[in-house]
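During data preparation, a discrete fold description was generated, as reproduced here:
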Amino acid sequence: MTASLFDLDAYLSRSRAVDLGSIPWDQVPRHPLSQETVRALRYMQDIESHTIIYLRSLLATRAIDDPEVATFLACWLYEETFHGIALARFVRTAGQEIELRPRSAMTVKQHVESRLTSWIARAWPDFVAVHMVWGAINELTALTAYRRLAATTGHPVLRDLLDRIAIDESRHFYFYFKQAEWRLRRPGAARVTRALIERFWAPVGSGVQPASETRFLARFLFSGPDGLAAVRKIDATIRDLPGLAGIRLLESWVGRSAPEAIPAEDWAPAEASV
């Protein structure tokens, strides 16, 4: 799909598992880790390993009818799976426990969401636009979270590993964003996409991890002036997509779910941050 301005061949040529062989694993136990960092890593590992479940729902939609999207999703699953493997190995090497939980069972809420997604995809020809916007928001949020954790940790091996993962996440985001940009050129697709995103979007991991863990991550990574600036940069980037001007997703969610992360005096109307 040349109109999406995404060079899929170039992406495929760079797609590979994160290189675990060049990580100095013997150095991991030599540097301290805060319990907050370990908690964040466990959350991130679990979500990366859950990618195959997100893909399960997408396989029942028209998203895989697009050859470019289907090819990307295959690489995306491969790369994200190895992010989970790398993070699990790091946590264990640091002397911490990590639980690899079963993935096959679905909660009632997840089952309903999967059926609803499949129904919308069949009924609405522009469904893939929603998927691309949703993916762009989540990948940019994950990318920002990795960068925030890398900037705050004093552990050199962890910082190196997070930087490597962030490179993959940035390429994932770029694909989703360019696809969304192209698909939202249709005003009708943009209007419906915006309505669905504003009604249903929640940060990646919501419904998979307990709400307490999602709120913890918001407080840990997105508190203070630097955290707030990162949140607003994510929202500002998404507002560049057609039909999404003025939208404020992550800042609104953080304000509702972890209000202590954003002092009341720092709040501003959405229009002020456009």
The two ends are 30 Å apart (CA to CA).
